[in-house]
Design brief:
This is Phosphate regulon sensor protein PhoR. GO terms for molecular function: ATP binding; phosphoprotein phosphatase activity; phosphorelay sensor kinase activity. The protein is α+β, with helices and mostly antiparallel strands and about 260 residues long. The chain has 7 helices and 8 strands. The termini are far apart. It binds adenosine-5'-diphosphate (ADP). The site of adenosine-5'-diphosphate has 23 residues, from helix 5 and helix 7.
Length: about 260
């Protein structure tokens, strides 16, 4: 007889129950801590731009006369902060929409050629000619999934590549076949890269390698958290290869079951 099974059966009912309960409570406490941290983070992220806008408005209202140049400068700075708050709220809404929608979401065939073209247009728009952007579309198959969610996840990888690659760098979007019927969507860049010790925590909400740089270039700190959620719903896996000062490659690997024939 298997002794492990026997020993489990020998544990009196109330002890097992207690063990289970204490595990549930630990789990519950962990969820509560995560929730509290999240609320604190969101409040902090919103408070900073609000304080800046409030400060400028106060200064302006205290000034007896404001020359045109100063006014324009203040307005530009306030606009930047309001855009920052807008991106944050949009990312929060995207996250909550994904979390609250049923796990068994409606699946459709996603026209990858079209989605890749849209992503290329968006990448060019964000880059404004500062990078060389290439598309390598070699996979003959399309995806099964939710087009909005996939667009949002892939779009976040693309905007990160643009954001963390200095002017003159290259970015490649690729859709390729892999072994065993899998397919990979990847975004690689020749940007600043990520030190190894940060890799495991990248998809945590509000986790940033360099806070100043992320905020300065419009990052909300939620992009990769959105990516993680979307990929989990599509049974896809994220792989990150990165080297500081060389660049990064974010690959999304889809199983054969998630692929569809071209229509
Ligand atoms: P953010 O809005 O700050 O970009 P993300 O969740 O999208 O938030 O990414 C988390 C962090 O991972 C970023 O702050 C950045 O430090 C790092 N990162 C993401 N993508 C890249 C990339 N392509 N190159 C270098 N660093 C990256």
């Amino acid at each position: 007889p298997d002794e492990r099974v026997l020993s489990i059966q020998l544990v009196p009912f109330d002890i097992t129950r207690k063990l289970l309960l204490s595990r549930d409570i630990t789990q519950l406490e962990r969820v509560q801590t995560v929730h509290r941290d999240f609320v604190a983070n969101v409040s902090h992220e919103l408070r900073t731009p609000l304080t800046v806008v409030g400060g400028f408005l106060e200064t302006l209202s205290d000034m007896p006369e404001v020359d045109d140049a100063t006014l324009r400068q203040f307005l530009a700075l306030m606009l930047e902060q309001s855009r920052r708050m807008q991106s944050l709220v949009e990312d929060l809404l995207t996250l909550s929409r994904i979390e609250n929608s049923p796990r068994s979401m409606q699946q459709e065939t996603v026209n990858m050629d079209q989605l890749l073209d849209t992503l290329m247009v968006e990448a060019e728009g964000l880059s404004q000619g500062r990078h060389q952007i290439t598309l390598d579309n070699r996979c003959r198959r399309w995806l099964r999934g939710n087009v909005q969610e996939l667009h949002s996840a892939f779009g976040n990888l693309v905007s990160n590549a643009v954001r963390y690659t200095p002017e003159g760098g290259s970015i490649t979007l690729a859709w390729q076949e892999q072994d065993e019927g899998r397919a990979v969507f990847s975004v690689s860049d020749t940007g600043i890269g990520i030190p190894r010790e940060h890799l495991p925590r990248l998809t945590e909400r509000f986790y940033r390698v360099d806070r100043g740089r992320s905020r300065g270039n419009g990052g909300t700190g939620l992009g990769l958290a959105i990516v993680k959620h979307v990929l989990a719903r599509h049974q896809a896996r994220l792989e990150v290869h990165s080297e500081p000062d060389k660049g990064s490659c974010f690959s999304v690997i889809f199983n054969a079951e998630q692929l569809a024939a071209r229509e």
